[in-house]
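QA checklist item 7 of 12: single-chain prediction sanity check.
[x] sequence parsed
[x] length recorded as 104
[x] structure emitted
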Amino acid sequence: MYSKYHNKKTEVHNILFDSKKESVRYQELDLLQRAKEISCLQLQPKFDLIVNGKKIGFYKADFSYIDEKTGKTIVEDTKGYTTQTYRIKKKLIKALYNIDIIET
């Protein structure tokens, strides 16, 4: 079944992904983790969007992990299409958490 963005839900290792592209990226990250190049791989980490003490929503990334070379936490979103809502949330994540989201 296709969504409005024409992505096809795909299952890998008993995990259902929103798109084939996202499932392929997961497999790449899984291999990197097995090779100990990254660690602490998380699927769909959630970040609360709190402005002036009020929660206005949340952002759910596709992946986060630690780059073992730098020790830095990386947040990724697998995108085929960027929406206006995503672009706003990306700016909020940068402002609130000082995190640059990598788009793959």
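[x] summary fact logged: Residues 10-103 form one domain.
[ ] second reviewer sign-off
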